[in-house]
Request: fold
Amino acid sequence: MSTVVGAGGARIRVMAIVAAATAGALFGVGLLLSGMTQPARVVGFLDPTRGWDPSLAFVMGGAMVVYAGAYHLVRRRWRTPWLDTTFHVPSRRDIDVGLVVGAAIFGVGWGLGGLCPGPGLVSAAAGSHTALTFVAAMLVGMLAQHGWSRR
Reply:
């Protein structure tokens, strides 16, 4: 998040943090309501040999439709975001070894644990021991990647 300078800069920064926390909480509620915090639901989607559960595909598809529409609407109507100085849109479009290896590690972890970062954090906040272990391992992995990329 960029620091906004000017008379109302501190107020805008606080509003940005509140907006991010509100969006995160809303996302977490959506994950809970859709059942995506249940590892069995994710494993049921990834393992078609034991009675495939397509609910994850519907949740992801619905999220992509809503996000794509909102993204294009916001990009067309506003030159700058309300609570920051610029939009932060990734500019890299290349596929390198780090991306492929990271995606593979993510996919294997997702398949084995049935959790990804969003549902893992929501489940950990609810006190799930499995999710707490997952989040701890995720943080170790993030720190390892950060150290590796600084070499």
About this structure: Residues 9-34 form the longest helix (26 residues). Residues 9-149 form one domain. The two ends are 25 Å apart (CA to CA).
